[in-house]
Amino acid sequence: MNFLLEGFFQAFRLLLNGNAETYSAIWATVRVSTYSMLVSLWVGVPLGFCLGYFEFQWKKSVRTVVDTLMSLPTVFIGLLVYAFLTHRGPMGNLSLLFTLPGIAVGQTILALPVVIGLTATAVESMDRKLRIAVMSMGANRRQLFCSSLWEARHGILAAMIAAYGRVMTEVGISMMVGGNIKWHTRTITTAIALETNKGQFGMGVALGLVLLTIALGFNVSLSFLRRRT
Questions:
Q1: Contact 32, 107 (CB under 8 A)
Q2: pLDDT digits (tens, 9 = 90+) for 33-42
Q3: What gap in Å lies between CA 135 and CA 131, rounded to an integer?
Q4: Nearest 5 degrees, angle CA 115-CA 44-CA 74?
Q5: Which of 1, 106, 112, 159 could be 173's S-S partner, Cβ–Cβ 3.0 to 4.6 Å?
Q6: Dihedral, CA atoms, 196, 199, 200, 204, nearest 10 degrees?
Q7: What's the average model confidence in pLDDT over 205-218?
């Protein structure tokens, strides 16, 4: 178990000494996760709100599909995105394979069902009397939408945390679509897999601790935001 302790100290050395390879992987991880989360939230929150707020035919079927997609294996998503982005695929002319935007496309597919499903759950759990109370005060549709969205804000933040956790910790998409290219598409998770295969457990643990620190900082920031609202 000494490699765990060694990895703990190595993590500090890598960060404090400004190790270029480590910071390259951190920067790549932050960039792709930011791209994928921005798109997922921009598309997923409105769709999740509509799914939870409105009643329509096939709603249960749509909800079942979304819930099923929430557990999509990352390797399967990586395989599909690879097939679409390869030069023989339908989107091969975009030249996104083995690039960070290509990884972001796959991670967006991973995070989107999580954002939609958990946002819909948050909206469905709202007090139904709120809608009647707001409408009785003469609110228009936009004001009704904003007040409902505000009431579901904590659930939406929880959806953001869950989606971000899946994106940050996935390996299959980054490995298959990004190719784990040093200085370009190597993320923290693919670097951990590489170092572990090389028998460099200390380095793997160090990068794992760096990843944990980033995730902790993100969650602490959202918890602070939640208390402020």
A1: yes
A2: 999 999 999 9
A3: 6
A4: 55
A5: 106
A6: 20
A7: 80
